[in-house]
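User: Quick sanity check before I run a bigger batch. Here is a single chain. Can you write out its predicted 3D structure?
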Amino acid sequence: MDSITHIVLGATLGEVLAGRKLGKKAMVLGAVAQSLPDIDFVASFWLDTSRDICAHRGVTHSFLFLFVMAPLLAWAAGRLYPRSGMSRGAWTFFFGSQLFVHIFLDAFNAYGTAWFEPFSHYRISFQALFVADPFYSCWLAISFVALLILRRDHPARRRWARWGLILSSAYLCYCCWNKWLIDGVVKKDMERQHIHYTRYFTTPTPLNSWLWYVVAEDTTGFYTGYHSIFDRRPEPSYRFFPRNDSLLAPLRSREDVQNLLRFAQGYYTVEQWKDSVLVFNVLRFGEMKGWEDPKAHFVFHYFLLDLGGNAVIVQRGRFKGWSGQTVWAFIRRVRGN
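Assistant: Done. Predicted structure follows.
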């Protein structure tokens, strides 16, 4: 999730876990602990792009990191706040809960979370929640503001914190329900259109849980499309993208290409853009305005020959070219065809 969500979530959870003993310090410590796994961003200062995308949400989002850091943070907090009334076990539970919630929640996004690093590179990705969803975060933000305003001994503090956590968790369950509905629709549509696939995935489009991006793989490439839970007409059209492995063959032995293949988890295509620009697309992150523009490029695209053009690789295309017209087209597509 985005950093603001982790901060308000950590602060709200901190109030529930230790607010009575620590006061508002529980919010501060909770926000810091909840944000700690994202310290992996510093790796981007010395890693090249292909290694950085594999390092992000890697070992700092693993169970090993949780089991090592929780007792270390507990020890440090015990030394820093010896009169807090918190035992070593209580501190360990506090920090362990914050770290676990962070890596658990991140697994609901498309990027994937490496719970089992460094023993396995396999990434967990439930693909049920967009990385920044205001309908998830707003409840936590409201609770966060209330907790900042209320004095530390106010009897309503825990009630505000609990409701923020309950409502955000209810929305997460709602997202999972929407995904289950969309998956059922996708399977029926693929069958009706005689599209044969070996595997598929669905993932929410930006900032919502109603319009979903669909990718289905066959032996030579991928079908992509969009479904809204409000669609009234079945069988939306799908576009086909060939994988084009032949274009990648001369470069496959390169280290950056191997990293990209690992990161893509098999969901990739290679394209020749104009001026002989060779591009590696990772399909897991959707298309730029794909619901509006049938010729839209994929959000994640890596230039295989011009390596200097690969900064800010994941997010550079997510909102590129958006305008007021784009927003209205997006809203109309969310509302259903």
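The two ends are 29 Å apart (CA to CA).

User: Great, the batch can go ahead then.
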